[in-house]
């Protein structure tokens, strides 16, 4: 039997409580916005009010005249490279001769009080010449007369996928049953509660120490250092308390700006965005416009899929190229399709920049292909679960990219288990039982119930040939006469429970030797990169790195103890034992630029949802009565934390289905606040039934399968399908708004 099947773990698999949990609940946890030094000053950013304009002049004189101002900086004061970027260095540190989106940074101010800094920033006089804003992604992609947002053109990436007869663009794809639709996904915000913030401290060596809430310390450092004109070793980053992330902290926000001000003033500089600025200061989920056509046999077997996926990347690249790759490679879903003709595009516009958000390209495609599966079920006279079961992938299936599913993928069984779960009872008529809740909007007239299903497939870890790895250093020594393990990585704890997972791995690997105490050091750049806390990858790669380092330490300790000497005695005699290891998952490969073929992903994860909703068809109000989910996680590391991930991902998917959207008109954001940008509250989130399956992946550490993102995919189409079932309406767009129901019904 394999190690996965036989290992008895004192750490992995237990529901240990998170060490930061109580502190966060009681308000004692220190977030990055709580950072403080006695001699610090405050930094503020001046941002463009226009989505597209030439900058004709900038007069900083009035700002310098404000008492308490220590520095005012423009692009001319950038000491090194003037551009940075996560995938492509196209974003200016401060706008040079033009602005490409509303909210683009133009100048910086440092002052002895935050209000003085804001007043000084408002005093800067910028002369703009407003230009035509490119806001329609279809025009940006396909109209040759459309203005260019960047000189190289508006198409960031075009990724085709061609399979079977779809290889010939002229081939006629036909089938007895054909359904087609156009779908749209609005711009969703990550809506983390902790705003962008950090503290930059100038160092004696001419470098800078930055304490910041981020998702990827080393990627930040490698973008910051060139802009400051400093070698990487003189830009030291430490992770400060992170108040949520969900992808929005992968890109830089205030990092370079705070460091520039600290180096100019010689004082520590703190920057904290207010909520409105936060909406302008980070990337969002790509809005999408999608056209799909599915062809099938009369008994519902898929014959072909034709699709066009258009993703609006906004003004700068961020991670748009990778988002396009995910949307393309997963664009037909977890279904066996012999013929595929799919084109995915990412484009520049003058809309707000878009990048990583939980689900990362797969969310948008999932909404479209699942909507299509419901249409196909109706056209074939089949149950929506049955149509999915008949086409479901399983171990050994090939995806549209040609990649073989080489680990367990029990999708058909997951769907049958989900469908067999009991449905919730009809509403009892209480105050909160009906749509509108405490608002008493209805007594039940016009309220209809609907049930809908959603299926999602998500890649885990980074893809398409990226050198995806993590580094861990583990040290075992005597402290207070007791063997103690110190685990040190640069992996960002962003609320997902990673600190606890690292501790559990160390206890699993070292507990048998008598190591009773485990401490996880704060994340910083003094240890090798752990990559980003994104792509559901940290348990996989950092868990793998900690396991490898622990096993190297264990091998040395076993040699010192020789099976006879107690560990404490061996450590006292020989001193501490320390090992550093890197862990890489199996290699991936870029998608073919013409056919889209290739083993682009290292692991795939499945989640299925059922949603039950009550809809007031007259007022357009929706109450989600229950969500049920079945997810295969490979192996449970911490069940309590895992259930939290499934609940949280489902909540964000529900939000996208019914309420969350950044409203953009003419390139301008209309609702940059939590007053007008709505997210689900405890009253919006229904009870959940969750079934967690363990089918270990033989290629992954402990057999685990990344779990944070998949629930976000399938929950959105499930809720939308349930609303369609209740109303009989087409509803091709999310979020579904009250007027979409009330005015159409």
From TrEMBL:
Q: Which SMART domains match?
A: Ald_Xan_dh_C
Q: Name one Pfam family in it.
A: MoCoBD_1
What positions does the domain Aldehyde oxidase/xanthine dehydrogenase a/b hammerhead occupy?
26-132
Offer an example of a GO molecular function term for this protein.
Answer: oxidoreductase activity
User: Which InterPro entries does the annotation name?
Assistant: Ald_Oxase/Xan_DH_a/b, Ald_Oxase/Xan_DH_a/b_sf, Ald_Oxase/xanthine_DH-like, AldOxase/xan_DH_MoCoBD1, AldOxase/xan_DH_MoCoBD2, AldOxase/xan_DH_Mopterin-bd_sf
Q: What PANTHER family does this protein's entry cite?
A: XANTHINE DEHYDROGENASE, XANTHINE DEHYDROGENASE SUBUNIT D-RELATED
Protein name listed in UniProt: Carbon-monoxide dehydrogenase
């Amino acid at each position: 039997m394999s190690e996965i099947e036989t290992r008895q773990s004192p750490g992995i698999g237990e529901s240990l409580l998170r060490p930061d949990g109580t502190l966060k609940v009681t308000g004692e946890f220190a977030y990055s916005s709580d950072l403080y030094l006695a001699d610090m000053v405050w930094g503020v950013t001046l941002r463009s009010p226009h989505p597209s304009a030439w900058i004709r002049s900038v007069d900083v004189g009035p700002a310098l005249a404000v008492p308490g101002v220590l520095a005012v900086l423009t692009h001319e004061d950038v000491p090194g490279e003037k551009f940075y970027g996560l995938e492509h260095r196209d974003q200016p540190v401060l706008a040079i001769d033009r602005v490409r989106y509303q909210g683009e940074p133009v100048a910086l101010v440092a002052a002895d009080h935050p209000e003085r800094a804001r007043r000084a920033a408002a005093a800067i006089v910028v002369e703009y010449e407003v230009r035509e804003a490119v806001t329609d992604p279809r025009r940006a992609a396909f109209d040759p007369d459309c203005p260019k947002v960047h000189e190289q053109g508006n198409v960031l990436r075009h990724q085709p996928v061609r399979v079977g007869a779809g290889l010939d663009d002229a081939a006629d794809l036909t089938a007895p049953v054909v359904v087609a639709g156009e779908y749209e996904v609005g711009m969703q915000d990550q809506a983390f509660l902790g705003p962008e913030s950090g503290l930059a401290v100038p160092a004696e060596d001419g470098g800078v120490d930055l304490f910041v809430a981020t998702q990827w310390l080393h990627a930040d450092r490698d973008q910051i250092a060139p802009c400051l004109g400093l070698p990487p070793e003189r830009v030291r980053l430490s992770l400060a308390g992170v108040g949520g992330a969900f992808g929005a902290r992968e890109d830089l926000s205030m990092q370079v700006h705070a460091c520039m001000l600290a180096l100019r003033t010689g004082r520590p500089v703190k920057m904290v965005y207010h909520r409105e600025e936060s909406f302008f200061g980070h990337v969002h989920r790509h809005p999408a416009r999608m056209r799909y056509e599915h062809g099938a046999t009369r008994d519902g077997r898929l014959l072909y899929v034709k699709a066009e996926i258009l993703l609006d990347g906004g003004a700068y690249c961020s991670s748009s190229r990778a988002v396009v790759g995910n949307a393309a490679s997963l664009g037909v879903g977890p279904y066996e399709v012999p013929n595929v003709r799919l084109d995915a595009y990412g484009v520049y516009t003058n809309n707000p920049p878009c990048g990583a958000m939980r689900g990362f390209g797969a969310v948008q495609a999932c909404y479209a292909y699942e909507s299509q599966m419901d249409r196909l079920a109706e056209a074939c006279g089949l149950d929506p679960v049955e149509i999915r079961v008949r086409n479901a992938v399983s171990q050994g299936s090939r995806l549209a990219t040609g990649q073989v599913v080489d680990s367990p993928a029990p999708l058909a069984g997951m769907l049958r288990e989900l469908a067999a779960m009991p449905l919730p009872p009809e509403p009892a008529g209480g105050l909160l039982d009906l749509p509108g809740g405490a608002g008493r909007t209805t007594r039940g007239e016009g309220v209809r119930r609907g049930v809908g299903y959603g299926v999602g497939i998500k890649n885990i870890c980074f893809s398409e040939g990226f050198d995806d790895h993590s580094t861990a250093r583990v040290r075992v020594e005597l402290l207070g006469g007791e063997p103690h393990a110190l685990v040190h990585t640069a992996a960002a704890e962003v609320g997902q429970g990673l600190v606890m997972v690292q501790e559990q791995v160390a206890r699993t690997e070292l507990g048998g030797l008598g190591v009773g105490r485990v401490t996880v050091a704060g994340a910083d750049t003094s240890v090798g990169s752990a990559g980003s806390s994104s792509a559901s990858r940290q348990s996989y790669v950092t868990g793998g790195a900690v396991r490898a380092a622990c096993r190297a330490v264990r091998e040395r300790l076993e040699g010192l103890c020789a099976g006879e000497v107690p560990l404490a005695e061996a450590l006292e005699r020989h001193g501490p034992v320390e090992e550093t290891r890197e862990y890489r998952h199996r290699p991936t490969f870029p998608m073919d630029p013409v056919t889209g073929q290739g083993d682009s992903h290292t692991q795939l994860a499945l989640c299925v949802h059922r949603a039950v909703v009550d809809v007031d068809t007259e007022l357009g109000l929706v109450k989600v009565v229950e969500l049920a989910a079945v997810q295969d996680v490979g192996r449970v590391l911490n069940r309590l934390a895992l259930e939290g991930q499934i609940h949280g991902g489902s909540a964000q998917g529900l939000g996208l289905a019914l309420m969350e959207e950044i409203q953009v008109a003419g390139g301008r954001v209309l609702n940059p606040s939590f007053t007008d940008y709505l997210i689900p509250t405890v009253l919006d989130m229904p009870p959940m039934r969750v079934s967690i399956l363990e089918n270990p992946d033989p290629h992954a550490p402990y057999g685990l399968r990344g779990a944070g993102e998949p629930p976000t995919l399938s929950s959105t189409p499930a809720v939308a399908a349930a609303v369609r079932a209740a109303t009989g309406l087409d509803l091709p767009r999310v979020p579904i708004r009250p007027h979409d129901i009330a005015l159409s019904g």
